[in-house]
Amino acid sequence: MEKISNFIVKYRNKILIFAILLLIPSALGFIGTGINYDLLSYLPQEAESMKAQEILGDDFNLSSVDFLVVNGMKDKDVAELKQEVKKVDGVEKVYWRDDVLPITIPKEALPKSVRSMLYSDDATMMIVTFKEGTASDRTMNAISNIKKIAGKKCFLAGMSALSEDTKDMINHDMPIFSLIAIVLVLFVLWFGLESNFAPFVFMLGIGFPIAYNFGTNIFFGQISYITQALAMVLQLAVTMDYSIFLLHRYQEEKLRGNDNETAMSHAITQTFVSISSSSITTIAGFMALCAMSLTLGKDIGLVMAKGVVLGVLSTIFILPSLLMIFDKQIEKKKHKVLIRPLKKVPAKIINHYKAILLVFAIAFIPVWYASNHTNVYYDLISNMPQTFNSVIGTNQLKEKFDMTTTNFVLVDDSVSTKDVQEMCNKIEDLDGIHNVLAYETAVGSGIPSSFEPSAIKEILNNNGRRLIVVNSDYRAARDNLNKQLDQMDDIIHQYDKHAVIGGEGKLTEDLIHTCQKDFKMVNAVSMILIFIIIAITFKSIALPIILVATIEFAININMGIPYVTGSVLPFIAPIVIGTIQLGATVDYAILMTSRFKEELEKGKHCKHAIGSAIKHTSTSIITSGLSFFAACIGVSFVAEMDLLKSICILLARGALISVVAILVVLPTLLLVFHKVIEKTTKGWPVATVEKGMITNEDE
Fold this sequence. Notes:
699 residues, five-stranded antiparallel β-sheet, 4 domains, alpha+beta, Multidrug efflux transporter AcrB transmembrane fold
């Protein structure tokens, strides 16, 4: 590593120029990376709802369906609007009443099932299908153009409309999120560093790996909007420590009398050893998300793990050049450090370690229970901003047409007409079913024989399959709808063993089942990975148990608070927060434990050694934790989308809880179980635990 360090210092300017040039392909990669705004598309392909979606797309061209609610228009004007919508690029079909009967014939002549679905007082509804998937660029552009054509009295409802609203908000908010995170982290760095100029150099330096990370996402083809919104903030919060460590090492080496080049070369070597081992645990935490069946976890995990790797490489290869270029400015403009080492706190912690242990032991099970019983929601619409056009449209579907959730039942064409009618009657008798539309029920006696209902047949009878549209009064992700779907499953399988149900309700039900399994899987995988890394790092059996127990305690407190306050979290939050907080906090734990061992090797007794460890690591841990807190809490203040707001609040609060846990709980456990650590850890220094209390001066 020493040769590499010398090479980096010698050719630092050329490396910086090359790094700047790499920003060009990164920008192109960023522009070329697709953003997926449809979270339900991340469900495993073997899920029944995903199979149904595939059939809906292949056989019925209904993979992407939205509903256009038209208010206060005469049928003649609605018919003209329909023709305008049909011309929009990306629109496949537009279905309305004139596909069944001409508007010259009174709507009362329509079959009841069709009339009740398409009319409500002064409102009517069109069914719009699209040529591409729910969240494709073409579909969302079509949604945007339909809004312009339809005007303010019309509202689109459906997952495509929701995706388009989400896209508009994310594109508008992303620069704001980034600016707020940068400004608040700069404040924290100013408090924690004596240089006025260094925080700006750090921000300049971390801009490279962030740009590279967004640019290299093109290799994935697309990323989720959640990943896009959080990646920059998380990468900023997680990897800022590396920059601080390099600067401190560089300054230490200069104080030893080394010239700038020699000092930086030594600093790079020391920094690489420290941050490479530290970053492995963070990477492991993110990679644990790849174990999720819901591939959204893989999406977030790979992007963030890649971001950490790029953060390490940029700290080693790019930041040295920036620090040496701006060395004079960094050293010249200084102020008194406001985040200073804790001097009085270590003695208080050590002298009350038994009380802290008692609180830890008593609280561990209750906070674990609270964490595992926090309520989560899976409804992707009701917690979106109520100003969304798609949310207004969804509410109008409910209020005016009693269409809260639309389910698509797919049965084989071999099922007889009699059985289909019997099946529809049974489904319609279920609690919460508003209406059922099938080809057999839609073609009523009111339609003259001269009019061939080809549009209805095209929608409801295709490629050897029959489609039955079932409108429910219940919202997706609610227990009553899930029960209703189970009852529908039982009914349809009486007539066709291979029948499936599609639509938002079934997709969301599969999302619930998938996430419940993923939560347990990801927690187990992340803990096992971190346990193994700590065990290898310290060659210990006891230390991984102690460190993981401390971190899990902090995570459970964070995730248990919503249970106590009665808050409901978005479904992805418990899975993502646990791994991110685990990956970030384990760095603090390793830093504290390593310093404790270092102090013991100097010949100190346990209490004095742990006191010194708390004092000397507190500045780094607090600065890092506050940086994480600042980056996330700022975004939570401005984010309108509850999903992003909740995740950022949890991350911010988790950072503070983790800092306290590592500075207070971990030293207590290291002290209490020191003899066990000695016996189960290779090369651990032997020391005694002093009796009595210690003072600040003793430490």
